[in-house]
Design goal:
678 residues; Rossmann fold; Isoleucyl-tRNA Synthetase, Domain 1; six-stranded antiparallel β-sheet; 24 strands
Length: 678
């Protein structure tokens, strides 16, 4: 199989605060595992990232501290770069958008479009904060969405329903800087004709999905934007901090960060070329049609990497100059929450990567996050689960298998790989299992199902422990030492394969494990085959995964803000309060998906002689057609509420399953509609 040329990027983290665990689960750890796996395939892969260092949040932080924006970005760029290194991120280059090479790259793209007449300069009204004496970027205006009523919508976009609108349509606008009501003030900006590229973008998304299978959350987001119709977007802003617009008539303006930040992937690769003293090196990846470009991001960055960045590259490619490649896949993850809530710096809710790594080894965090990546839905980090993952899986399954095998080999075979003797069926089955795991994991990683792949690797350790128990080497060492040697030989081959398969996930621990094996990794495809020769000398074992004591975890839980923990306590209600809740049996007579939402279904249910509409968040667990005719339990006396502009008169009762899905409470068909549940 021919080696692939692969360009991998992770979303540029904002240099305005420290990296926390949620960031790792979204765009960084899955990319790093994928890259390390690809390197074991001996593919030609580079991994590019860097700090996003422009925009208003930087200036606001600088103003609060009474320092220059440069001080802020220098602090957080260095801190985050070191945190990534401690965590084991294997970037080929971690750059900065404040570097001259990035400014030059962004200006080159801007001038190319400006000189071709692609950009339109026109007047428009933007929100202006009179108290702060500044124009407000989208994220610093909050109000009520004119489409769905979401009260936390941005000035021109609603994250709840995905709607785009003119700032003048936003209801009850409020400045997030001063807290006052901003005014609309006329200004002049350059606009990029995003709508012009909609047909090409729709074709691009469809083709990439058909060939490479994009994730549903990415496709739904793209199609929501396409349905509303792409509109021209301003690519300049009235700010002091940023890349100056290279046009005389635009004095006092900078290139808008949404336009220039994504170009940081290109400028970071150019910087890597400089470091290698190979000026044309970057073109080998960005301007080769054979390049496989994969962009790892969190779901909040989908539009920038599936619509805006591809449109910018398409516009450049129209110039007839050297062509840029577009992302082949954009495997966006959902969000990781912390102890059931969103990470919040202001509320002190969460933990930064550096803080965590001061307490625990990086591989423990890498494994816990990887085994619970939010690939299809939001997931949570819990301290207790972290402890359980370490103690029950890394220590009791993987670590136990390694320790017991090495202990036997050193005690009874002088630390040397025993001879592989006559094979029985149980031995042949285990060798077959070992040989099949690399492809099994590879198939999952190639589809960006990193979480499933990681959990499957641990299954090999489970198989190893079962094989060890079933072959009973503690008995055969006395009755049939050759048979005992065969068992231990096969166990060591399994451990070697585990070291190989886990190396993208647990790079620090597997480096130690390879030293214990006195061996080096091979290409991924070779790893399921016996690699350790008879008589090969092993090195002394060490405990790779010590148990984490309860006291250490309790100490972290006790650090959480008491005010937030109080909110989690269950409030007891009286019997009379409970009796106020009216639960009734209802039959689902209609069901359909809610547009622009992947979680909601619109149901029409029938009680006794009444039909009503209920909006239920069960779309990820049920297809609409599977619900029609089912009898369910609803809370019938809830006040009507609006979800995605749709009125909901009731709530369906459901339970959460072990995999995080939802299962509705079914009622026998014999029970009459409207029957009260007590």
């Amino acid at each position: 199989m021919a080696k692939e040329k692969i360009l991998v990027t992770s979303a540029l983290p904002y240099a305005n605060g420290p990296i926390h665990l949620g960031h790792l689960s979204g765009a960084y750890l899955p990319a790093d595992i994928y890259v390390r796996y690809k390197r074991l395939n001996d593919d030609d892969v580079i991994y590019i990232c860097g700090s996003d260092e422009h925009g208003v949040p930087i200036t606001i932080s600088a103003d609060k501290e009474k320092v220059s924006p440069q001080v802020i970005i220098d602090r957080y760029h260095e801190a985050n770069k070191k945190a990534f290194e401690r965590f084991g991120m294997s970037f080929d280059n971690y750059s900065r958008t404040s570097l001259p090479i990035h400014h030059e790259t962004a200006k080159e793209f801007f001038l190319e479009f400006y000189n071709r007449g692609l950009l339109v300069e026109k007047k428009s009204f933007q929100f202006y904060d009179e108290k702060a004496n500044m124009f407000l970027p989208d994220r610093y205006v909050e109000g009520t969405c004119p489409k769905c009523g979401n009260e936390e919508a941005r000035s021109d976009e609603c994250e709840n329903c995905g709607a785009l609108y003119d700032p003048s349509e936003l209801k009850n606008p409020k400045s997030k800087i001063s807290g006052g009501a901003p005014t609309l003030k006329e200004t002049t900006h350059f606009y990029f004709p995003l709508g012009k590229y909609q047909p090409a973008l729709e074709k691009y998304v469809d083709e990439m999905n058909n060939k490479y299978g994009w994730k549903d959350n990415v496709l739904q987001y793209c199609r929501g934007w396409f349905k509303d119709g792409l509109k021209e977007r301003a690519i300049t802003r009235d700010l002091d901090w940023g890349i100056k617009v290279p046009v005389d008539s635009a004095a006092g303006k900078v290139i808008y960060v949404w336009f220039e930040a994504v170009l940081g992937y290109i400028s970071s690769t150019k910087e890597l070329s400089q470091q290698k003293n190979q000026p044309e090196f970057w073109k080998k990846y960005w301007q080769d049609p054979k390049t496989k470009y994969i962009a790892f991001i969190g779901k909040d960055n989908i539009v920038f990497h599936t619509i805006i960045f591809p449109a910018i590259l398409m516009a450049w490619n129209e110039s007839g100059k050297e062509q840029y490649c577009l992302p082949q896949n954009v495997p966006a993850n959902e969000f990781l929450n912390f102890e059931g809530k969103k990470f919040s710096k202001s509320r002190g809710w969460g933990i930064d990567v550096d803080e965590f790594l001061d307490l625990f080894a990086p591989d423990l965090l890498r494994y816990t996050l990887a085994a619970n990546l939010p690939e299809t839905r939001d997931t949570d980090f819990y301290w207790k689960e972290f402890q359980l993952r370490n103690n029950s899986e890394l220590a009791d399954i993987l670590g136990n298998f390694i320790n017991r095998t090495f202990t036997f080999v050193f005690k009874h075979f002088d630390g040397k790989v025993p001879m592989l003797g006559k094979l029985e069926k149980i031995d042949e089955d285990m060798l077959k299992e070992i040989s099949e795991y690399p492809k099994r994991i590879s198939d999952l990683f190639e589809k960006y199902k990193i979480r499933d792949g990681v959990n499957e690797i641990m299954n090999l350790a489970r198989d190893g422990n079962k094989y060890f128990n079933d072959t009973e080497p503690w008995k055969t060492v006395k009755s049939d030492k050759e048979k005992c040697g065969t068992t231990l030989n096969i166990c060591l081959q399994a451990i070697y394969t585990l070291a190989e398969l886990f190396s993208p996930v647990l790079p620090f621990s597997t480096e130690k494990l390879f030293k214990m094996l006195n061996a080096k990794p091979v290409e991924w495809k070779e790893s399921g085959k016996p690699q350790l020769k008879e008589g090969h000398q092993l090195k002394k074992t060490e405990i790779l995964f010590p148990k984490i004591e309860d006291e250490k975890i309790e100490a972290q839980i006790n650090k959480l803000p008491k005010s937030e923990l109080e909110k989690e306590k269950t409030e007891l209600i009286s019997y009379d309060d409970f009796m106020k809740i009216q639960l009734n049996v209802a039959e689902v007579i209609e069901a359909e998906k809610v547009k622009k939402s992947k979680k909601l279904l619109r149901l029409k249910v029938k009680l006794d002689n009444e039909e009503r509409q209920v909006i239920a968040g069960i779309a990820e667990s049920y297809e609409p057609e599977d619900l029609v005719g089912k009898k369910v339990v609803i809370v019938a006396n809830l006040q009507p509420a609006k979800l995605m502009s749709l009125e909901s008169k009731g709530m369906i009762l459901a339970v959460e399953t072990e995999d995080g899905g939802l299962q509705i409470l079914n009622v026998s068909e014999k029970v009459k509609n409207g029957t009260r549940v007590k």
